Amino acid sequence: MNALKIKKGSSRKSAYDLRDPNADIVETHTLAVIVDNEPGVLARVIGLFSGRGYNIDSLTVAEVDHTGHQSRITIVTGGTPAVIEQIKAQLGRIVPVHRVHDLTVEGQSVERELALMKVAGAGEKRVEALRLADIFRANAVDSTLESFVFEITGTPEKIDAFADLMRPLGLVEIARTGVAALSRGAT
Fold first, then answer.
1. Distance between CA atoms of 122 and 147, rounded to whole angstroms?
2. Where in the chain is the domain with CATH 3.30.70.1150?
3. Strands across the sheet with 97-102, in order?
4. Which of 73, 113, 141, 156 would bridge 33 by S-S if both were Cys, CB 3.0 to 4.6 A apart?
């Protein structure tokens, strides 16, 4: 029987290491959950996440069917593939939940977020803030002699990038809606 010798500090793995190499990969998923629009449903959904230690990165809720009294909860969360499957299964077992769609795995989707950003500054910083807002297609929805409030819509990455550029120019406050998402195509 030949023994495999591995030098100390080598990056080779042992043949006896049976752990799944993908087990620690954390993925971000966007889930669309159709629920009855009734008191306590959102609390039950959030309770599922908090009770099991899952994090919610983004959460939006609105009624989407007035006659059927149904709401759509859009949740952006992260976890290993096994955790994501567990979240979807547990969401599907909550009584007022009608459907759970994982937009991340069901195909391409469109995701947008709205943000309002207050930027205070004077002189060149004020001019630069307006120039960057134009590049990012952000609208100035309020203006005083000391500050602007910009409205920007786009992907979460676009909003993050705009905020990063506004910080040195006097970013004071941000309000974000969270992600709204729909799958692409006819279905």
1. 8
2. 109-183
3. 56-65, 70-79, 27-36, 97-102
4. 73
Q: Which two tokens stand for residue 126?
A: 């004020």
Gap between the Cα atoms of 142 and 22, Å rounded? 48
pLDDT tens, per residue, the chain with 187 residues = 444 443 444 444 544 545 555 557 899 999 999 999 999 999 999 999 999 999 999 999 999 999 999 999 999 999 999 999 999 999 999 989 999 999 999 999 999 999 999 999 999 999 999 999 999 999 999 999 999 999 999 999 999 999 999 999 999 999 999 999 999 988 7
Rounded Cα gap, residues 122 and 72, in angstroms: 42
CB 97 within 8 A of CB 48: no
CA gap 59, 56 in Å, rounded: 7
Closest by CA to 131, choosing from 148, 155, 115, is: 148
Does the domain at 27-102 match CATH 3.40.50.720? Answer given as no
User: Distance between CA 56 and CA 177 in Å, rounded?
Assistant: 14
Quickly name the fold that domain 109-183 has.
Alpha-Beta Plaits (3.30.70)
Cα–Cα distance measured from residue 70 to residue 64, given in angstroms and rounded to the nearest whole number: 6
